[in-house]
Design brief:
Radius of gyration: 49 Å
Number of helices: 22
Strand content: 15-25%
Number of strands: 23
Distance between the termini: 86 Å
Structural class: alpha/beta
Shape: flat
Strand order of the largest sheet: 10-11-12-8-13-14
Amino acid sequence: MGIDDKVLNKLEFPKVLAKLADFCILPRAKELAFGLKPYIDLELVRLELQKTNEAKILLRGNPLFSVRGSKEIRTYIERCLRGGVIQGEELLEIRDTLRVGRKTKQHLLEYKEEFPGLWDIMLPIEPQKELEDEISRCVSEDGKVADNASPELADLRRAINRLQNRIRETLEGALRNSSYQKMLQDPIITQRSDRYVIPIKQEYRTAFPGIVHDQSASGATLFIEPMPVVHLGNELREVILKEQREVQRILQMLSAQIEGRADEIADLHEALAQLDLVVAKAHLSVTMNAGAPELVTKQQMKLVQARHPLISGGVVPLSLELGNDFDTLVITGPNTGGKTVALKVVGLMAAMNQSGLQIPAESDSQMGVFTQIFADIGDEQSVEQSLSTFSGHMKNIVEIINRADARSLILLDEVGAGTDPTEGAALAMGILAELHERGCRTVSTTHYGALKTFAYETPRVKNASVEFDTETLRPTYRLLVGIPGKSNAFTIAGRLGLSERVLEKANTFVTEREMQVADLIENLGETHREIELEKEKAETGRRAVEKQSKDLEEKSIRLDEEFEILLALARDEANELIREAKREADTIIEELKAALKKENKQQQDIEKARQGFRRISAKLDHGRQVKRSDSELSTGQIILGQTVYMTKLRQKGQVVKLPNTNGEVLVQVGIMKVMVPLTELKLAQEEKKVTPKYSREMGIGVRKAEEIRNEIDLRGMLVEEGREALDKYMDDAVLGGIGLIYVIHGKGTGAMRTGIQGFLKGHPHVRSFRIGEYGEGDSGVTVVELK
């Protein structure tokens, strides 16, 4: 059993459905929108809300998604089933609808895992591509049957054109005939009763041979078909009738095909209407800035900043809970303060949620599913309320009490009003107590002060009030849960000009206990407002922190993505530099070979080649720097005897001493011991030595680079000889990819050592160099790091 239409009308739910229908395209979808009723099954509600949310996500990615292009074709199908014939333009509408259904299903097929609810709507659609193509072949876009619909129709239309041309030529000959010139009213060819005629003057009726088909209003002009074309006209008429019969046969043939697939076409149209409705729900949600609440299994409600969906402008949001800490809420406050609106908001949120509509409230709202919603809301709030009004309310309440249970939501406006205040208050307490004992979720408004005490004294019953600004004498429309409404009669009267003397006399009729209760309520109200203000500040701060945290997280993800992109670009650039260097190396090698053949230019060309090698060295160094791994060792990973790779020197070595306080590690590199910062070390990887393969023509320079050692001994040479030998050796070392070399020379401050180190300071291949020990004896070594 569903929720009564009478209750939905009181909640103004049909107005919400009218806003929903405005977003629908198909008339059938509008019918579904106006006929939408709240579901009472939890899983159905969950499924409908899921569909709405899927459509909203789909529109976010494709705002133009719709069933636009489909038409209302139900009447055509019904006529077809009764044996009628569908006309050309109607066939085009059916074709367009079939096409939209087929393409929409094809589109959602790609997202069936992401949007299972929408895909379920599309499942009944069976594509009718053959029927679409047949209609397109037989009917042109202007709605007329096309010439190529059948060979017979094409022949008949060619015959019509041929006869029309012959008739036109014959009539044009008559117009040019000099003997007929004076008989013509106008030298034109026109049609009367589908026959080609010439306008002839009345006085030449007998002189012009032919059949009269019409005359002008004045009678001065006769429209005569000349005798030479009468036979052609008769023949044309016969062909036209045959053409019309063929057109009718084709239309009947297409109608028969549609009749044979009427169920499939009807299912397709219904699926499009269902999808149109769900998309309309998504559009309505966006318009209302609505969201999907959390669906809970119990009959509970938690509304956070809920807004009336039909009130525009600066709406004061409503926040309340029902079914968690309390089951019954009693709202007090002045007239026009928003009590009735609060009732309708509660009812509308429940009805919309159970209809698959997202509600205009914050995302942390919660909604249960109620099997029944009852409402006794009277909008006639005037002093002329009579017994008949009271009777009407009582009749509704009797029906509510007879049908309500623990799964019902009940909304009562001014319960017990319209009769003696004492009896009305007692009756209201009895009604609320009965509904409360049944476990109903009840929201009631009242003016009776006794109900405030009832709410305080009864477990799981809560007071609430709508706030009133005594300064402006206007309600603020804010709902204060936990605080009963205070009577502001004296305050309002005084601000409206009632004298102090009258107010003092009025105060004498108020008991001391009533004054204490009023003061207590006022104090509670002030305390509650302060608490709400602090809660609001805390909530604002929490949201700001959450937003900042989310922004930082998104920024971090964005920076990581940008870093990956830049790293990939750098790697590509490094690879390109290496490829370019290899190309230049090949060119230089060719130049070397040519230089060896030319003795007279050998020295100059070799120097040119060396400069080229230095350029390649710079590019290779840049490429290596870009491709260098950024993984570094920690102190705990270093062990004695471990093989490590020195990233800056580009050499392997063994750890002979663990890191000192400065984070430096003593590493044995060949014949040298070097202190290397921990940040410049990484674990050495096993490398398989690959012997480069060169062609015979690459010359002795490349083979020498392949076989070169990482040390050069200058002992016994003169300074100038040593500098020349070292310069050539470094060129070969760079070409061979050696990053660290050892220059062996004498110890002390001899001329060779001084000259070599001076030479290294300005050399373009040298990154850095340092003095080290080389074995025993009187020799020394300089360690050179090449670029």
